[in-house]
Specification:
alpha/beta, TIM Barrel, 2 domains, four-stranded parallel β-sheet, globular
Length: 243
């Protein structure tokens, strides 16, 4: 424990388009004012760092460290959490993960993966130029949709599913709920309960698995909010605080 340094701050959680969160210099001054001693820089955020330039120029890397040093801060790591996640993406998540990539490779999983791998290589070289020995990233996972409800669902993503659900679902469910639908007993099902696993409520489209830690709440999709929720579905919408 005696070797632990800090406290340090992951800037991706606060970077934005308004001052003091829109440049490395101003956000560093803000972080230092709160008592932080180090920062982790998100390598995908051009307001904080030019990753390609950092991989090619030690002079530029020295400038980054100098900017932080002016505020009494040190750089702890670079982060490639978003790019790293794109190294291995299950096809069911193609649309959602496309937002983590540059526009020119979206809609093209092969090109997106190649871009992501190149980003990690650039980050490794940039880390070397910055004198860093540690790095923060995600590995990506082809099993992601079967394990964890992330990333956040884009606004309106449930609307086409909700619009199409009557066409896809009603022909199957309607016969079971009509009087006399089971002719042998004249039995009518008054209520049907469902459980959809592992990570989606088929009406709300929101994450249903309780998370092990709190995340920033996000208003539910308006299209889903107008519909009654299933009794067994506890919806927990959330948002990623990274950019």
């Amino acid at each position: 424990m005696k070797t632990i340094k800090g406290p340090a701050l992951f800037l991706a959680q606060f970077a934005g388009d308004e001052a003091p969160f829109n440049s490395l210099d101003s956000i560093a001054a803000w972080a230092a004012g709160l008592g932080y001693k180090g920062v982790q820089i998100p390598s995908w955020d051009a307001r904080m760092i030019d990753l390609k330039r950092a991989a090619e120029s030690r002079t530029y890397c020295d400038e980054i460290k100098g900017t932080l040093a002016e505020h009494g801060l040190v750089l702890t790591e670079l982060s490639t959490h978003l790019q790293g996640q794109l190294v291995a993406v299950h096809p069911v998540y193609d649309e959602m993960f496309d937002g983590f990539a540059v526009p020119e490779v979206r809609g093209n999983p092969k090109a997106r993966q190649e871009w992501a791998v190149d980003q990690l290589k650039l980050a490794a070289k940039a880390s070397q130029n910055l004198g860093l020995t540690d790095h923060g990233t995600f590995s990506g996972s082809l099993a992601w949709p079967f394990i964890y409800p992330w990333p956040q669902r884009p606004a309106g993503s449930s609307k086409p599913r909700l619009t199409n659900w009557p066409n896809a679902g009603v022909p199957f469910w309607t016969p079971l709920t009509k009087p006399g639908s089971i002719s042998a007993t004249k039995f009518t099902l008054a209520r049907i309960s469902t459980m959809v696993s592992p990570s989606r409520c088929f009406l709300s489209g929101s994450a249903t698995t309780p998370l092990p830690y709190p995340l920033r709440p996000q208003p539910p999709d308006p299209a889903a909010a107008r519909l009654p929720r299933l009794s067994g579905c506890v919806s927990r919408p959330y948002s990623d605080v990274s950019r």
